[in-house]
Design a protein that fits this description.
This protein is of the alpha/beta class. The protein is built from three helices and seven strands; from the N terminus they run βαβαββββαβ. The protein has one domain (about 5-140): DNA polymerase III subunit chi (Rossmann fold). It is globular, with a radius of gyration of 14 Å.
Length: about 140
């Protein structure tokens, strides 16, 4: 079973949510983890893709949008709306409104929520589902990004 961590931001800003995700993705990448970032739409994927290039001067995180074709270069972050490919199931950042498919096969799932009521309601449902499956969940409340 995976390790599940919820990060709950004090801010309602989608920008702050993506900025926080960029910082965690950078930390994971720098520790040798090539993760998958799950979002709800191609527009959201493009926005996060753009932010990963610009969120911090000097930062470099190899990444690409996942379109269903597994890339030849595996040492990178993938961003998409589909199920994570096999090599990227170790660490999944969930910024979507639903549970990742095949979440039981992942090592870590990081759920990043902002203070928006719709985001929190969907997060609560996922929290309950993880708990019902017997997962111990760690929650971090983030005051500022």
């Amino acid at each position: 079973m995976p390790e599940v961590t919820f990060y709950v931001l004090n801010s309602e800003s989608i920008y702050d949510r993506y900025l926080f995700a960029c910082k965690l993705i950078e930390k994971a990448y720098n520790s040798g983890k090539f993760c998958y970032v799950l979002l709800d739409s191609i527009e959201q994927c493009q926005r996060l893709d753009d932010m990963l290039w610009t969120f911090r001067a000097g930062s470099f995180i190899p990444h690409q949008l996942f379109t269903g074709v597994v890339p030849e270069i595996t040492k990178q972050v993938l961003i998409g709306t589909a199920n994570a490919p096999e090599l990227w199931k170790n660490v999944v950042f969930n910024l979507s409104s639903h549970m990742p498919q095949e979440w039981q096969q992942m090592q870590r799932v990081l759920e990043i929520l902002d203070n928006n009521e719709m985001t929190k309601a969907a997060g609560r449902e996922r929290y309950r589902s993880y708990k019902q499956a017997g997962i111990e969940i760690v929650t971090h409340k983030i005051a500022s990004v």
